[in-house]
Write a structure and sequence with these properties.
Blueprint: E1 3-4, H1 10-22, E2 26-31, E3 40-47, E4 53-55, E5 64-65, H2 73-95, H3 101-123, H4 132-157, H5 162-168, H6 171-182, H7 190-207, H8 217-238, H9 245-266, H10 274-302, H11 304-311, H12 314-322, H13 331-348, E6 353-358, E7 361-367, E8 391-397, E9 400-405
Parallel strand pairs: 1-5
Antiparallel strand pairs: 2-3, 3-4, 6-9, 7-8
Amino acid sequence: MARRCGWRSLRTWARACWWYSTGWEFCARIPDQRRNGRCRHHVQAWINEDGFVKLGQDKCGRQLVFDGKALNAGVASALGAALLFGAGTPLAKLLLEGVGPWMLAGLFYLGSGIGLSLYRLASGAASVKMSRSEMGWLAGATLAGGVIGPVLLMVGLTGMPASGASLLLNAEGVFTAVLAWVAFRENFDRRIALGMAAIALGAVLLSWPSEVSFAGLWPALAILGACFAWGIDNNLTRKVSLSDATWIASVKGLVAGSVNLALAAALGDHLPTLPILAGSMIVGFLAYGVSLALFVVGLRHLGTARTGAYFSVAPFFGAALALIGGESITFRLVAAGILMGLGVWLHLTERHEHGHKHEAMEHEHEHAHDEHHQHGHPDQPGLVLAPGIKHSHWHRHEPTEHVHAHFPDAHHRHVH
């Protein structure tokens, strides 16, 4: 008989996310909930393709079951992306003392692309193979987010004060969610919509200046157009999110970095001193490169709207980290934190479970053998892989129908 086990150790949770990101199994010490409450066993645990923790048998041979909603690799990745991106904001303010804003943006993106490329080279990452349709999705995402978005942002910023622009930039999360729900048919319910609204309202409250000025319609439309382009970028990136996240982030970083550096040169900016240059590229590698790679992992497991909602808390992380630099706690920061916390809680406590059907499909991506990947390896007869061992090859999903909790990930894009 299956037992439900608690997951009380924050360290175990962190280890699970780390092992998942590196593709290794891990061994967690989990308490057995027998009546005496004193028996503890080591059990093998892993996170399956849906991001849910699966537990094997303990030393007594009992099958253990873990409620998947308590831990999802996509949630951890999306919040990690928001934390890194938000942390880059106070650091960017320090770097702006020695470099122009467009040059800094270009160095951030270029640092992310170069840094991730060097990481892939050093780690011996396998080359990425994409189909023609996937290359089309990636090209569209890169064009929208790395070219059109920055150009429209520059047009808007040159015609309006930063106070109004900072408010309008919150529209990216809203556009991302609306496009996912309406154009790409990603499922949502009232709980998810309310959570997204709470997070967006918190972001607006956090960025609300003492005096707001928009200075004309066209600059405001240009800013909104940039946000719409980034919303398209996020939704198209989801189409290729099964591919290597570091490769996707490096490609987008190199393209966006080149475009922003060209814009900076057109505005007359010059390269900063070597310390500022190096610092900018290091911050870009972490706050833009690693953050974007984690964002892609979030897209893979949660879908676009939910990942975008979690990522929208980045301004709060940035403001909270700025307190370390001596900034004071304000009412707006506390109120925004409450609203964003409410929105995140509504998302975290979501449980979407119903009977659904998987159509037959074939594709290639990194995966482990789980309830959605029950296949053999004809090219390697006799090969037996333990549960949780991630590997990549072309494989086929047979039609199946079952009931379980899930998110709109790569294997659950069905009609409701």
